[in-house]
Design goal:
Rossmann fold; 2 domains; binds nicotinamide-adenine-dinucleotide; binds uridine-5'-diphosphate-glucuronic acid
Length: about 475
């Protein structure tokens, strides 16, 4: 088996950056180079200012201090990194297609294909190619086909090694994974050798019994299924939150009670304004598309309902704001606390905050927004993508704060959209004094359920209670 001395990762994003940082930390004898077409992103990864990395993840900056420019490099020299590496991870984005066949459902594989063609173009020796991105089942056959014409001069082994980290906890997830999944060609000696080579990289810190190898199609499909099952639990509890509001049951108590059943388990039963993030929706839509393409319409409908319920939850939350605020928010100052799709990340992709903000803007509310890790540029960009407004128009409807100074002055309502810990420790008595009366708090995360805001005087509304 070839000794692995150089590894390249194409795609310096939320997965490529943290994953390679941890691999480099644990494999000091291997040189890792993360490459990207985005020069600005690479410059940010190389910046001395560790507070300004393109990805905010607790613990990431500390790992970079130990690895960067030692055995971990960030570069735009894609050809060179591919040429030198024995293993190439593909970790580029695979968004939902926004055009043509499969629009709105299928994964757009153009970035995956571009990487594969680049590898075919520049490789001069054998390579192990690892699918790290989340891909539709059977993508490996496409990659193989593209590389086929080159196989007289180099041999390629394709592995699927999906990533299961969650943002905000990426480093602890990578350091203590529930499992590492490696799919490959288990029927040939070369395939098994490639699986072994990749497995050894993880064995530096992951117990062997947590490294699972399967056939490549099972591995590709398992990633989509894992995300679908996780998202399904959130939609399930969110559906019950609506029933709780109608019956005076409390969704937090119901979740606690059912979660104690070990067969159900406690995790992922937190009712919320709706799940966000770059993956749950995209991966379920992709699963739906795949099922439909095999004429499995009942299967497709079943999983699509997870998305429909999530959309319903966001609208339901917005409608409650309108109902409680006497049917109008026009010209009212509404504070949005949180913009990221969950706490401890700066990622805003598919954040429920974007949908809620859009609906409130359509009702002519004046939005005053604060998120500890998201800046004005990002928020404006998110709203431009979601609405048809130009930048100047959006800036006339929102104000973004960098601290909570004056944020609450004369506000009619506070809407909590991300569960940042610091929101709990705010002085809510003082906030109440600063606001218009009656003062409303709509808590899309049930974050302040123990702060007893009603006794301060707020009109407090959580989810499912
Ligand atoms: P991202 O958008 O943060 O990063 C992708 C990077 O790839 C970008 O910087 C982009 O410039 C680069 N890129 C695109 N095409 C390229 C090319 N041809 N050559 C070089 N660079 C190129 O995406 P992400 O969040 O890191 O997700 C990457 C993949 O991992 C997706 O398939 C996603 O579904 C999957 N995934 C994401 C997460 C997560 O938490 N974000 C977790 C597990 C799996
Ligand atoms: C999710 C999965 O948890 C990861 O295993 C997977 O690797 C990743 O998607 C991916 O493929 O991208 P992530 O989206 O980063 O990770 O974060 P989650 O913790 O799963 O949260 C997703 C969304 O669901 C967030 O908006 C969160 O607030 C919401 N959520 C989560 C709830 O509303 N309730 C819960 O109980 C849990």
């Amino acid at each position: 088996m070839t000794k692995i001395s150089k590894i390249c990762c194409i795609g310096a994003g939320y997965v490529g950056g943290p994953t390679m940082a941890v691999l480099a930390l644990k494999n000091t004898d291997i040189q890792f180079t993360i490459v990207d077409v985005n020069q600005q992103r690479i410059d940010q990864w190389n910046s001395e200012d560790l507070d300004n990395l393109p990805v905010y993840e607790p613990g990431l900056a500390e790992i970079l201090t130990q690895t960067r420019n030692k055995n971990l490099f960030f570069s735009t020299e894609i050809d060179q990194a591919i040429k030198e590496a024995q293993i190439i991870f593909i970790s580029v984005n695979t968004p939902t297609k926004s055009y043509g066949i499969g629009k709105g459902y299928a994964a757009d594989l153009k970035y995956i294909e571009a990487c594969t063609r680049k590898i075919a173009e520049v490789a001069t020796d054998d390579k192990i190619i690892v699918e790290k991105s989340t891909l539709p089942v059977r993508t490996a056959s496409t990659i193989k086909e593209i590389l086929h014409y080159k196989e007289s001069s180099c041999q390629f082994q394709i592995l699927s090694n999906p990533e299961f980290l969650a943002e905000g906890t990426a480093i602890t997830d990578l350091l203590n994974p529930d499992r590492v999944l490696i799919g490959g060609d288990i029927h040939t000696a070369e395939g098994r050798a490639a699986i072994q080579s990749l497995s050894e990289i993880y064995e530096k810190w992951v117990p062997k019994d947590k490294i699972i190898s399967t056939n490549i199609w099972s591995s590709e499909l398992s990633k989509l299924v894992a995300n679908a099952f996780l998202a399904q639990r959130i939609s399930s509890i969110n559906s019950i939150s609506a029933l709780c509001e109608a019956t005076e049951a409390d969704v937090e108590e119901v979740a606690f009670a059912i979660g104690k059943d070990q067969r159900i388990g406690e995790k992922f039963l937190k009712s919320s304004v709706g799940f966000g993030g770059s993956c749950f929706q995209k991966d379920i839509l992709n699963l739906v598309y795949i099922a439909r393409s095999y004429n499995l319409h009942e299967v497709a409908d079943y999983w699509e309902q997870v998305i429909l319920l999530n959309d319903y939850q966001k609208v339901r939350f917005f409608q409650n704001i309108m109902k409680q605020m006497h049917g109008t928010v026009s010209e009212k100052k509404i504070v949005l606390l949180g913009w990221a799709f969950k706490k401890n990340t700066n990622d805003t992709r598919e954040s429920a905050a974007i949908d809620i903000a859009k609906l409130l803007i359509e009702e002519q509310a004046q939005l005053h927004i604060f998120d500890p890790k998201v800046n004005e540029k990002q928020i404006v960009q998110d709203l431009m993508m979601k609405t048809n407004f130009l930048q100047e128009e959006i800036l006339g409807k929102i104000k973004v704060y960098t601290s909570i100074n004056q944020l609450f002055d004369d506000a009619h309502a506070v809407v909590i959209l991300t569960e940042w810990d610091e929101f709990v420790s705010y002085d809510w008595k003082s906030i109440y004094q600063q606001m218009e009366q009656p003062s409303f708090v709509f808590d899309g995360r049930n974050l302040l359920k123990n702060n007893d805001l009603n006794s301060i005087g707020f009109r407090y509304f959580g989810i499912g209670r």
